[in-house]
Design a protein that fits this description.
With 263 residues, this protein is an alpha/beta fold. The chain contains eleven helices and eight strands. The protein has a single domain, classed as Aldolase class I (TIM Barrel). It is 41% helix and 14% strand. It has an eight-stranded parallel beta sheet with strand order 7-6-5-4-3-2-1-8. α1 runs parallel beside α2. The protein is globular and about 45 Å long. The termini are close together.
Length: 263
């Protein structure tokens, strides 16, 4: 199938992998991903491993992302990491993951502040959205998704000119909460419908149709090598934010391969 947006696959390591373990995994990933063209890829390890992973990725086409940041540039915020600190090492940052919302009280408003802070220092935010099982079963998916996009991206100015890859510096990851880490992935058809009928129209309202059609939207939630193609072959899904499967070199490589073959 033809695409005007280049596929993107990012691995979210969550709170896994010490520096020593990262130094074992990354060379395997580099070897397996080096020949896969037509798809952009990134690794998002824990903060402690960022510097080590950055060194291992030098000279490759694999990007580096952080899993979070704080919206202030500096200050008395013990335990937090500023956008400028992240930008010294990374090109990407995950913002608003459902685990952050669930366990650490993040809201659409704090997501909004973090997205603004990331864009200000030149980071590309990967903004996570998604409904819970209760919301899905109550028929509230559209209301939740629309609210999260509108509030999370409120008052944000995007460059209207797209980059050389035909994309703008913002990525959305649709991750239905009921599919994360459960082994129960949404179907490709369902996820595509959410993107087509809920996410892109809301992005269009915020940024205009040209920018909205250039923003890449990923799927996340129990993505693995055996089901990746189902999502990548959908017209509106531009890749994946991969959790547990990104901790296994061959599994992640095969997911990226599926994305490359979907072009």
């Amino acid at each position: 199938m033809s695409r005007k947006r280049i596929p993107f696959v990012a691995g979210n390591w969550k709170m896994y992998k010490t520096i020593a373990e990262a130094r074992q995994l990354v060379p395997e990933l580099v070897r397996g991903l080096s020949d896969l063209r037509g798809v952009e890829k990134a690794i998002c390890p824990p903060f402690t491993a960022l510097m080590a992973v950055k060194a291992l990725l030098e000279g490759t086409d694999i990007g580096l992302g952080a899993q979070n940041l704080y919206w202030e540039k500096e200050g008395a915020f013990t335990g937090e990491v500023s956008p400028m600190m992240v930008a010294e090492l990374c090109q990407y940052v995950i913002i608003g993951h459902s685990e952050r919302r669930t366990y650490f009280a993040e809201t659409d408003q704090t997501v909004n502040r973090k997205v603004k802070a990331a864009l200000e220092v030149g980071l590309i935010p990967i903004v996570c959205i998604g409904e819970t099982l209760a919301e899905n079963e109550a028929g509230q998916t559209q209301a939740v998704i629309t609210r999260q996009v509108q509030a999370g991206l409120s008052d944000i100015q995007l460059k209207q000119d797209v980059d050389v890859n035909g994309t703008v510096p913002l990525i959305i990851a649709y991750e239905p909460v009921w599919a994360i880490g459960t082994g129960k992935a949404a179907t490709g058809e369902f996820a595509n419908r959410v993107v087509q009928e809920m996410i892109r129209p809301t992005l269009s309202t915020l940024f205009g149709e040209p920018a909205a059609s250039s923003i890449r939207v990923l799927y996340g939630g129990s993505v693995k090598a055996s089901n990746a193609a189902e999502f990548f072959n959908q017209s509106e899904i531009d890749g994946a934010l991969v959790g547990g499967a990104s901790l296994k070199a061959q599994e992640f490589i095969e997911i990226v391969r599926a994305a490359a073959e979907s072009v």
